[in-house]
Amino acid sequence: MSRTTTVPPCRICGGGLQEFFDFGKQPMANAYRTPGEPGEAFTFRLAGGICDRCTTVQLLEEAPHDRMFHGGYPYRSSGSSVMRSHFEQLADTFLATELDRPDPFIVELGSNDGIMLRKIAAAGVRHLGVEPCDDLAETGRRNGIRVCNEFFDEELGKRIREEDGPADVVFAANTFSHISFLDSVLRGIDALLAPHGVFVFEDPYFGDIVRKTSFDQIYDEHIFFFTVRSVKYMAAAHGFELVDAERLPVHGGEIRYTLARPGTRAVQPSVRTLLAEEEKAGLADPATLRRFSDDVRRVCTDLVSLLRALREDGRTVVGYGATAKSATLLNLCGIGPELLSYVCDTTPAKQGRLTPGTGIPIRSPRAFTEEFPDYALLLAWNHAEEIKSKESAFVASGGRWIEYVPDVRISAT
Ligand code: DWN
Ligand code: SAH
Ligand code: ZN
Asked: Which segments constitute the C-methyltransferase domain (predicted)?
């Protein structure tokens, strides 16, 4: 587990980090290259460890924050109908609970294309999306939401409080885990939140990553991998209390955490239940983490053997969904255009470009439906149900999905 390279201290508590995986040099996951352009300018060592004090799992090295999130950042949250209804439901819940008071105010960090706030805006409720990527901020505005086109940190939290007053809710989905300077972000939330307010955030659950060997959740943008235990520690260290933790099925398994000022809310039983489950699963035990690393190697070996065998057999194989996650899978396994002819994806900004580090062409899903391949590697495995039902004609015509979470298999449905 220990290495000779220098390991930085924990970003949450300053404790020691015990390295337990090293996926080698990796590019940034959303840095799609245009054909003919020189290779990726930035790579970093994608390795991670667990803190021996607060147990927060985190990357050891990081990519510069403003290099990951900028005008050309391609991810559009509304590309999945399941995610659209997930966030519509949450907006309805907020409207009926936390925002059911005179002149309520909600702030969302990482509002992206407005997938969640548009429903809040339509209800006429005061809100602000914080979205540093210019194109996305503009798309959010076109979708009817009010957006601040900046990075959230302590200074911005204080400024929003001065200009708009205290927030009843601060919300962040798949964003809090993406920010290395969480101490500043938490101070900003502290400044912004009303005394009775809540900070709600949802991110991939480390318990699910270990259970499903979904190691492709690990890439530059995902700096932290939370558990209930580590979030409880972080909340207390920053003057908050973890009052609720709800498991979510989306994005391969997440938890929605609710933080409040200490003593203002009853702590829900789910917190204790999940803490006990984590203890039983040994999520912070070196043996569990070693097993995770072994499982990753096994999945990579199995997948590469399968793809090579299919290729030698003359079968056509493509990838489905140019996900950020797939950058880790493809680079770690060394899968390039010789094993996957192309990857199809609905995102216009990804089409016509190449997967980072591995140079596989990205094409529109039309390429897929016009001429079905023999096999499709489901890179967007977290959207399996949605994609499989949309592409039911593929299997009906004899095509087969290849899946790799939790292990490598060919599925006929
Ligand atoms: O945390 C993050 C999550 C929320 O989004 C970010 N760091 C970056 C991004 O990660 P990702 O790219 O792994 O997310 P998805 O949602 O798994 O990406 C799905 C990809 O597949 C998108 O590029 C859209 C595409 N897609 C498609 O081609 N057909 C998706 C669906 C549902 C489809 O039917
Ligand atoms: N909330 C959306 C988007 C997740 S992608 C969803 O769940 O689908 C992560 C988003 O966080 C991007 O839109 C990115 O621009 C934004 N982001 C990254 N750093 C941020 C920061 N410091 N403050 C606010 N948003 C940030
Ligand atoms: Zn720590």
From this structure: 249-406
Q: What is the SS3 assignment for 44? A: strand
Ligand 1 site residues (CB inside 6 A) read 75, 79-80, 174, 178, 221, 251, 321-325, 345-347, 350, 365, 380, 382-383, 386-387, 390
Same domain for 242 and 313, yes or no, is: no
Query: For 286-323, what is each residue's pLDDT tens digit?
Result: 999 999 999 999 999 999 999 999 999 999 999 999 99
Nearest-angstrom CA–CA distance, 242 and 228: 8
The alpha carbon dihedral of 44, 294, 359, 175 has a sign of negative
Pairing of strands 193-204, 167-173: parallel
**Ligand 2: does its nearest atom lie under 6 Å from the Cβ of 107?**
no
Residue identifier of the C-alpha nearest atom 21 of ligand 2:
151
Output the pLDDT for position 2.
Answer: 46
Ligand 2 pocket check: which of 138, 178, 217 to mutate, most ligand atoms within 8 Å of Cβ?
178
pLDDT at 5: 65
* Overall domain count for the chain: 2
Tell me if 153 is assigned to some domain: yes
Judge whether 48 lies within some domain. no
Claim to verify: residue 309 and residue 163 sit in the same structural domain: no
Q: Are 275 and 232 in contact (CB under 8 A)?
A: yes
What is the biggest distance separating any 2 CA atoms in the chain, rounded to whole angstroms?
Answer: 67
Considering the domain architecture, whether residues 168 and 254 belong to the same structural domain is answered as yes
**DSSP three-state, residue 114:** coil
- pLDDT per position as a tens digit, 71-81: 999 999 999 99
Asked if residue 229 belongs to a domain, the reply is yes
Question: Residue 4's pLDDT is what?
Answer: 53
Same domain for 270 and 139, yes or no, is yes
**Which atom, in ligand 2's list, is nearest to the CA of 132?**
15
- The domain that holds 269 is classified in CATH as 3.40.50.150
Q: Please state whether the predicted TM-score (pTM) of the whole model is above 0.85.
A: yes
Instruction: Give the per-residue pLDDT at 1.
Output: 46
Distance 224 CA to ligand 3 centre (A): 11
Domain boundary among 281, 296, 317: 281
- Closest ligand 2 atom to residue 77 Cα is 8
| DSSP string covering 330-358 | HHHHT--TTT-S-EE-S-TTTTTSB-TTT
Identify whether 57 is part of a domain: no
Domain extent for 260: 77-281
Which protein residue's CA is at the shortest distance from atom 12 of ligand 2? 110
Listed as ranges, residues in the chain with pLDDT below 50 are 1-3
